[in-house]
Design goal:
Blueprint (H helix, E strand, L loop, with lengths): L3 H23 L6 H8 L3 H5 L5 H23 L6 H12 L4 H17 L3 H22 L8 H25 L4 H17 L12
Helix pairs in contact: 1-2, 1-4, 1-6, 4-5, 4-7, 5-9, 6-8, 7-8, 8-9
Keywords: DNA-binding, Repressor, Transcription, Transcription regulation
Pfam families: TetR_C_6, TetR_N
Organism: Gordonia effusa NBRC 100432
């Protein structure tokens, strides 16, 4: 590894940590590049050496969050042997409620609304969504016969949309059980309709 690589990695981590805290406290739009630099203790040139702009800082957070989620799902599905178990384990990870997850859901929703009006941001976000769907497909494919592309796309899009909506509503209502209740119902639908399951009972793992 090049000598400067660890230093750069630490700088990127500081920028992302600062942005995550500020975006969570104040929102994406209310946080400036200057705010992030000040909070991270880095210069503007250091930030721009790693991120072209604020959109890319958010997308760096998206990548970090997605990688952590995929790792959690891979661990949760290591020993499953059927699609009902697989879907239940995946949705169990998505249904975990914490302050950090609520903050992320709020930030992700804010950026999605912004991307709906910004074609460049939408393109970058869609690229990452496609990568995430591919990772989900690889996980689901470990069971044996792979589900169809259409089934995976519907499952992932539905799960993410329901997850974000449930987390947002949970933040408003303070109802920690809402995500798992909604995702439990979605798990049954996913197995019965999307993956043509063998009829096994799905339980969302927690």
């Amino acid at each position: 590894m090049a000598k400067g690589a660890p230093t750069r990695a630490r700088t990127v981590a500081r920028i992302l940590d600062a942005a995550e805290e500020l975006f969570g406290d104040n929102g994406f739009h209310a946080t400036s590049i200057e705010d992030i630099c000040r909070h991270a203790g880095v210069s503007r040139s250091a930030l721009y050496a790693n991120f072209p702009g604020k959109d890319e800082v958010f997308l760096g957070l998206f990548d970090r969050h997605a990688a952590a989620m995929v790792t959690s799902i891979e661990r949760a599905t290591e020993d499953v042997s059927s699609f009902p178990e697989m879907v239940g384990a995946i949705l169990g990870v998505l249904s975990e409620v914490s302050v950090d997850e609520r903050r992320w859901a709020l930030l992700s929703t804010e950026f999605s609304v912004y991307a709906a009006r910004n074609t460049a941001a939408a393109a970058m976000l869609n690229d990452r969504d496609r990568t995430l769907r591919s990772q989900f497909r690889n996980i689901l494919g470990r069971i044996g016969s792979e589900p169809s592309d259409e089934g995976v796309a519907l499952f992932v899009r539905g799960a993410v949309a329901l997850y974000e909506g449930a987390m947002l509503q949970s933040a408003v209502e303070g109802a920690d059980d809402l995500p798992v209740l909604l995702l439990s119902q979605y798990a049954r639908f996913a197995a019965d309709r999307l993956f043509a399951s063998d009829g096994g009972v799905i339980e969302v793992s927690r």
